[in-house]
Amino acid sequence: MAVRRSGEHMSDSAEDGAVRAGLHEVGRRVAQELRLAPEEPDAVVRPARLPNWRSALPVGALAMDSVALASLAIALSSHDGERARAATRVEVDPVRVQASFGSDRVLRVDGEAPTVWAPLSGFWRVADGWVRTHGNYPHHARRLVALLGLPPDADRDRFQTALRERSRFELEDGAAAGGALVLAVRTPHEWREHPQHPHIDGAPLVLLRDRDGAPPRPMRPRGARPLSGLRVLDLTRVIAGPVATRDLALAGADVLRVDSPRLPEPSWQHFDTGQGKRSTLLDLDVAAERQRLDDLLADADVVVHGYRPGALAKYGLDAGTLHERHPGIIVAQLSAWGTDGPWGRRRGFDSLVQAASGIAMRESRDGGETPGALPVQALDHSAGHFLAAAIATAVRRQRHDGGSYEVQISLAGVAHALLAARDAPDSASDDGAALPTVSVPVAADGAPASGVVECAPPVLAYPDAPADYPQAIHPWGTDRPVWAS
Questions:
Q1: Cα angle at 456 between 57 and 244, to 5 degrees?
Q2: Is residue 10 within 8 Å of residue 19, measured between CB atoms?
Q3: Between 388 and which of 71, 128, 143, 247 could a Cys-Cys bridge form, CB atoms 3.0 to 4.6 Å apart?
Q4: Which domains does the chain have, with CATH numbers?
Q5: Contact between 251 and 225 (Cβ < 8 Å)
Q6: Which residue from 315, 265, 275, 278 is spatially nearest to 294, judged by alpha carbons?
Q7: Sheet (strand 438-442) strand order
Q8: Are 163 and 175 in contact, with CB atoms under 8 Å apart?
Q9: How many CB atoms are closer than 10 A to CB 166?
Q10: What pLDDT digit, counting tens, does each position of 380-439 carry?
Q11: Residue 114: what are its φ and ψ, rounded to 5°?
Q12: Phi, psi of 232 (to 5 degrees)
């Protein structure tokens, strides 16, 4: 039995069981929201150490909990549920978690490190404080310079000079109106006063709800891994959504990522999180390609959304429409700010949520003069693993009880939980020790290898989880829009 840390809060018997296992505060909350049986988290072993990070917040505990719950939920989704519960032991490796959550730092594509941040992404001084911008995608960078009335080729110096003349909230509002990504850096108090905050504070961190009426879906022929036979349509980008669907793929699911050919993805970004999946391109404004997506949906068990809430509703891809057309389907939505409230349909990324929620000021190293950041993009990675845990839990319930399921999680919700957590903050500092990596060949389906990716190894810790990626990684958009099995 794990020893409870001094000062750790326990509120009821269900939570007591989770404490005796290995979960920290945020993990205990998610386990309760997923309605896991009180004894199920006992399978999680509390680690002797956490990832080697320095932070004012308990980032290591959050990271370990998210991976542990994804691993546990996947193990429990096995078709032999009672046997899975009896045999499951989840012991997450903190060194692998450190590598995986900082995956962009260890990633090498044909020996070369990627350029992760574009020139116009980052913190910037403005007339009354700081803002954080995101311009990694070319269309977002174009909107940033347009917001300031600058030419498309404006450099960082001209960009900074123009920003200095504007206030942070003026820039934030103007960017939202023009589709650019600029967020005011706020203190935690300022965020608590924001009208979006009550919609985060009053919502579950992970929403899992079902609509009755759909019978259990018949299981397809299965392989050895827990989610073999499951078909997942992946409509996500960047980090959190692809992390979730990578978890599902490594657990045996047939994951097909679908992107628009009009929104290219940087190749390194796909190589960072695309292991185990296939990737195809469909333009949903072309009738034949939209029909191809409908054909895929007819046989899908799970749809995972990572676009701005409501962005895909015009294509009938919202949860309500999908549940009506495909009873028994699981629809998972990842968002930046939640789906309700004045910011419910705004764009956002991990770095922007850190800025707006007060995390950047909590992470300041100079008393609040300059904003800081979490040691890794922990909101993204942990949200992805919690999302995978919720999807796997929905799969287990659908197979047993039937129903159509909806899952929701937001980066702002994870930020809120992290800021409120009472676990001890991370106190280690990076000792420069080498982190583990694995080499994965790059190859289109059926083609010889055309390159190699060195990346962080898998982190899932369910029994017999793969320690390596068993297949070549497919380049972005190179697969046919069909299910593999």
A1: 70
A2: yes
A3: 247
A4: 1-114+191-485 (3.40.50.10540)
A5: yes
A6: 315
A7: 108-109, 451-455, 438-442
A8: no
A9: 18
A10: 999 999 999 999 999 999 999 999 999 999 999 999 999 999 999 998 876 667 899 999
A11: -75, 160
A12: -125, 125
